[in-house]
Amino acid sequence: MQRGQHGLSLADRAAGSGVAPRPAQEEPRRPAAEGHGRHCWVRDPPDAPGIWPGLLVEWRQRGDGWHGRVAYTVVGAHGPVLVEAWLPAEQLKQG
What is the pTM of this model? Predict the structure, then answer.
């Protein structure tokens, strides 16, 4: 791997972090918009009614159902604003 300005590559630093990746068989079943880093549509997030393009980062199952961690932009007073939030699966649609 190519070394970065700090001496170790990102792969070397990840391997030395002591955090082991989870085996695929341990991951829970996810709703239809399965996967990491997938395009989605965010419907009526808090404080920004409408439909916004987003990036689904991960899923998590809670007591009240599935929630997706998404990053999306909305129009702010001074231009686009990047928002990251956990939203119920019902507010997310595969893109």
Answer: 0.60
